[in-house]
Structures are given as structure tokens and as C-alpha cells.
Amino acid sequence: MAFIHIPKPWQLPESRATPEAAFWNRRKFIKTLVGAGIGASATTLTACGSKGKDQSDIDPALKKTLGRSLKNFSKNPDFQDAGRPITEQIHASRYNNFYEFGGTKNIWQAAQKLPTDPWTLEVGGLVKNPRKYDLDDLTRHFPLEERVYRFRCVEAWAMVVPWLGFPMASLMADVEPTSAAKFVRFTTFHDPKITPGPAWEFALNLPWPYVEGLTIEEMANDLAFFAVGLYGRTLPKQHGAPVRMVVPWKYGFKGGKSIVKIEFVAEQPATYWNVISPNEYKFEANVEPDVPHPRWSQSTERIVGTGTNPFNWERQDTLIYNGYGDYVADLYT
Ligand SMILES: Nc1nc2c(c(=O)[nH]1)N[C@H]1C(S)=C(S)[C@@H](COP(=O)(O)O)O[C@H]1N2
Ligand SMILES: [Mo]
Predict the structure, then answer these.
(1) CA-nearest residue, atom 4 of ligand 1
(2) Residue nearest atom 16 of ligand 1, based on CA coordinates
(3) Distance separating alpha carbons of residues 258 and 97, to the nearest angstrom
(4) What is the pLDDT of residues 102-144, one digit of tens each?
(5) CATH topology of domain 41-332
């Protein structure tokens, strides 16, 4: 009997390979930057990579999309070496998943429409102290630290990012979950006028807003982090400004962006990709090289920015729990 494979809407991400690869033509990309009068700066940025770089010679419009300088943080010595080079920001901040702003990796300009100031992050549910944090609270109330983490998307691309933020455990200590809290639901900003979603016609039924979830034990783990910045700067909008989740032992989709609400709950929450395609995107979604995605292997990963075409990027072996087993393996035994 012939098995006829009919692609479903949510099967698009990997199958969009060809148009995306065609877009990500480095020569064309550099030409665009030169056209905007910033060719030399872009080249410098590409050449020196990583954080703390003086951007004073970069076109102000481009600079805005890379965040504002943040000074009040310390480097966490336990998380400075991710075992691989830090991905250059010009690559990390031009190759994003943020479906609220479109169904391709090229959403960084569209995402600039996200209104982030003022911002309120509401935390409630099964807690002793429900709170509303504003932007100032997020960058000043919690002592900020830098952590260089490996990052692994379920689509098998990977990078290394110097995040700035605070452990999720600090926020938990502030709100004090009750013993009835077993899971946590994280909700992303959603306003159809601002976040239209992908342009595909079948995108009409996507289960907005984007919701992610963790168990209470996962949220309490030392690695679980809220980022308010990266590369020494505030979080660029395309990365989920002003505050997003970073859960480095799980696939990237677990890291909800632009979080407006956190609720401590008793039952496992319904989450965006798991609702769309439960067989492909599990609630747990730990990085596991030996558990293939139904449509591709997870045993290796492509390193962002290591070539001109994303589908020829340098490959490395995928690590169990993305290399963070020492921290998290005991959560799953
Ligand atoms: N709200 C929201 N959060 C999201 C996504 C999204 O589409 N919407 N994409 C996820 C996926 S699939 C990945 S890989 C990461 C990408 O983060 P980055 O663009 O900052 O690298 O964001 C995650 N968080
Ligand atoms: Mo992803």
C-alpha cells in the first residue's frame, strides 16, 4: 500500500529550506547593509563577533535592533565557557523564530513593531505574593548576571549566546508558590493588530497566544533563566524583548519570548507547539540526540553563522540535555 505524505501547515518550518536558503545569501545580505550605508560597520561587527563591542559607528536604525547597552550586570563565572565559540550577534539577531511576526527566520525588522515600553509582567496563580513587574523592576529589582549558554532549536540549528538576566528561581522566591503549584504557564504578548502571525492562509487557526510551560521543579532548576538582554545589551525585540525564557537543556521552542504573564497552576498547561503537533513537539522537549523528530534526525546540529547557506552550516554532535546533564539529569530519573 502506498503511503502518501500530505504535508501539514506546521510541517513548514524545515520544508521552507529552499526559499530561506535563497534569502540567506551572504553577498546579498552584505549588499543590503552597504546599501543602507553601513557596510564597513557590518563587516567590523561580523569580524570581531561577540559582546561588549563599541557600536558607535553603526547606523542608528540598525543599532536599535541590537539593543541598548546594559552595564549593571556581573558575569557568572560558572557559565562563561559553553565549550564552543560565542555566536556573533549579527548572526544570532538576524536568524530568529518568532511566529507572531512571520513564519520565516527573517522577522527581525517586522519584530521592531513590538511595543515594549511600558511593559507589565503579571505573576499570579498559586502564589502567596502575586506581583506585577514593570520594565524597571525587571532590569533593577533582580541582580543581573551574564550566562553564556548553548542554544538548540528543535529544527537542529544551534548557537552560543551570552544572555543577561536572572535565574527563574529569584522570581519564584519573590512570589512564593504554594505547595499546590505543580506547573507554570508562561504567556507571550499577543495583539492581532501587532502580531499578525505567519502569512500562510492555514495560519488562521494557530492557537495564539504563544504559551509555554515547565514543571515547578524545572523552573526552580539553577539553569532556568529569564533574559532581559544579550551581548551586553537589552534584549532586541526579535529575541523577545523585554523579557524571555531561556531553558538551555530543552529545545528552543520552550523559551517563550516577550512574556506578559506567568501563572503557577496545578495541572500541566496546554502549550503552543504541543497543541499544534503533539507528536512532534512534546511538553518536556529535552534535547535528546537519540530521539529523532518524526521528520528529521536530532543526532547532529548546524552551527548558526558558520557558512553562507544555513543548510551547509558546520555540523556538530548533539549533546544529551544539550550538554547540561550534570545540572538537570536528576529531574528525569
Ligand atoms: N512567543 C514566541 N516565543 C518563541 C518562538 C515564537 O515563535 N514565539 N519561537 C521559539 C523557537 S522555535 C525558538 S528556536 C526560539 C528562537 O529564539 P531566538 O530567535 O532568540 O534565537 O524562540 C522560541 N520562542
Ligand atoms: Mo525552535
Answers:
(1) 256
(2) 97
(3) 13
(4) 999 999 999 999 999 999 999 999 999 999 999 999 988 999 9
(5) Sulfite Oxidase; Chain A, domain 2 (3.90.420)
